[in-house]
Design brief:
2 domains, Rossmann fold, 288 residues, Spermidine Synthase, Chain: A, domain 2, alpha/beta, binds S-adenosylmethionine, globular
């Protein structure tokens, strides 16, 4: 097996300064792809027990084993909280998984998509067809570029904006800052909802608190939801949500049987339950 700096004896090791002193490992059978794009190191592995895995700069973005949990929740929580979403913007998410989930909503008529790294899309189309099928949807309009620059040009246009960003290091850093959120707010229609990749309530307290503070200042409703994802650091990740109109913690629409049958994680009960946080998180987030 080809050796990279984070592979040893057939195991992929993920370590990062964002969760220092902790590591995660997956047993690997094969390196399927490796390239350095303009923005990041892109790798696809065949793991022993968890399907294919996409890593950017040595950080796991998804495995085929558990990607549904993250994609479904990041897409369906804001989309079902909105009474009638028609226009949607997805920023990041070059693997296509969020597009796949947004596409399940028949009421959505137009989906703008902006990913900074064209290579992530190309590699995902080649190696992760179960996610990249999201790009086959004719409602999707693909743009390559920085999500902040893209959204800065938009005004009063979207019912829902979903930010499926990598971590706040490298190209993703700008997507965790207040000016970006101000632009998201301007790009939303008056009753719009934004949902962003919100890191881990256990491991990234400063980042989560900062996102909660920004969204509280800018939006009418703000909330943080937790998702179980075994292959993310600490086994969990969050969604930071802001709404200019609808309440966030319950679905505003019925989930049709046709959609429910296609899902493996999201249900209306899971929607509500994801906002039930441990008491340490309430102490962190309630009075900021
Ligand atoms: N859910 C995943 C995670 O947190 O592990 C993220 C998956 S998705 C692959 C993240 C995508 O965000 C990457 O393809 C990356 O290129 C893209 N991205 C990072 N910074 C960006 C920016 N400023 N504008 C648009 N896309 C960006």
């Amino acid at each position: 097996m080809e050796d990279t700096n984070h592979i040893k004896d057939g195991w992929f090791f993920e370590t990062c300064s964002m969760w220092s002193g902790m590591g995660f490992a997956l047993e690997i059978e094969q390196v399927l792809h490796k390239e350095k794009s303009r923005f990041q190191q892109i790798e696809v592995f065949q793991t022993k027990n968890y399907g294919r895995m996409l890593a950017l700069d040595g950080i796991i973005q998804l495995t085929e084993f558990d990607e549904f949990a993250y994609q479904e929740m990041l897409a369906h929580v804001p989309l079902f909280a909105h009474p009638h979403p028609e226009t949607v913007l997805v920023i990041g998410g070059g693997d296509g998984g969020i597009l796949r989930e947004v596409g399940r909503h028949d009421c959505v008529t137009h989906i703008d998509f902006c990913e900074i790294d064209e290579a992530v899309i190309r590699v995902s189309k080649q190696f992760l067809p179960g996610l990249a099928c999201g790009f086959d949807d004719p409602r999707v309009n693909v743009n390559i570029g920085d999500g902040y620059a893209y959204v800065r040009e938009k005004k009063n246009q979207y019912d829902v904006i979903i930010v499926d960003s990598s971590d706040p290091v490298g190209p993703g850093e700008v997507l965790f800052q207040k000016p970006f959120y101000q632009s998201l707010k301007t790009a939303l229609k008056p009753d719009g909802i934004v949902a962003t990749q919100g890191e881990s309530i256990f491991l990234h307290k400063e980042c989560v608190t900062n996102l909660a503070q920004i969204t509280k200042q800018l939006f009418v409703h703000q909330a943080y939801a937790c998702i179980m994802v075994p292959t993310y650091p600490g086994g969990n990740i969050g969604i930071c949500l802001g709404s200019l109109g609808p309440a966030l913690k319950e679905p505003a629409r019925k989930v049709s049987e046709t959609i429910q049958e296609q899902l493996q994680y999201y249900t209306p009960r899971m929607h509500a339950a994801s906002f039930v946080l441990p008491v340490f998180a309430h102490r962190m987030l309630d009075n900021i």
